[in-house]
Amino acid sequence: MDEKQRTHILQLPPSPGYYELMLQSGERFLSTLQECKDCGWQLSLSTLQAHARVTWIELLCLVLCAVAWTGIRRAAATWIFQPFAEWCHVQPKEAEKVPESAWKLLFYSVSWSYSLYLLFSTEYTFFHEPATSFHGWKAGVEVPIDIAIAYLIQGSFYAHSIYATLYMDSWRKDSVVMMLHHLVTFTLITFSYAFRYHNIGILVLFLHDFNDIQLEFTKLNVYFKTRGGKYHRVNDIISDIGCVTFGVSWFWFRLYWFPQKVLYATCYSSLESNPNIPFYFFFNILLFALTLMNIYWFLYIVMFVGKVLTGRVQEVNDVREYDVAEDHKVYSSAANRTHRHKDGLSNGQSLSNGFLKKKQK
Fold it and tell me: Which pTM was predicted?
């Protein structure tokens, strides 16, 4: 960012507070919805035909890259991540999960670093001035090559992730929500590219990828803290710190910055730049759905912290880590322990905080 851009940012009026910002965005969205008298399938179809621009070559590149991600992941898991976990003598149950987390950590680290470069080391000022994302918008305008590369990488990866969630990842209690997340994200990426809303799209990706880096890094330290038959305190400390910073950054990036910068720009500023901006409701509804999913997962984080504070778990682990079958066995085991110790409790024994403690292995 050059000196001229810094001066321009300093001269901007202060942005409204969080509450005022959300209130203005919501009011603008609802008032626009009330004014829309011709909204329907016919208008949507005509708008799609008039403004969407995607070539067959771009679609082909998207499909080929999605297939390539799947092949690269299988090769990396087979020849790098799994052998490394075995070489480190990670417990077999945890070693099976290492390739998935290692792959995601690698991808999100690269993708977020590239988004960081675009937003803070180039002429783009979308992070500091989200409203400028829609300045000068025109249907079919040429997408800058550096942003087009980011879109190709991210769009193809989420297309691959839809397949990976079904056939490659461990199935967990929130995998259905994860599938919905991937579908919403893929739709937002492809449609925002077609309608040339790529500027705000880069900001959305930047605000979401950082938490995934922290999540996968923390999970890997959980897996590696018991290896070779020994307990490694360093990995345990890192996972403890990672758990706390992950929760804080999740709130800050996805529940504070995301509404403040993205939702305000798409609900309010976009209409200031172009009162007839196409597919206004479609994109904002998807972004609101993404926000609801972020809140849903944040509740998982809060729930996990609550279990730690009440003594129901004794060590850090990812709240969505265990698959459905294993989760059923955990609760069955807890019920069996309760039955076995019922007589002991009646003889005057007590449990810490009134809850059964279970040790995560």
Answer: 0.79
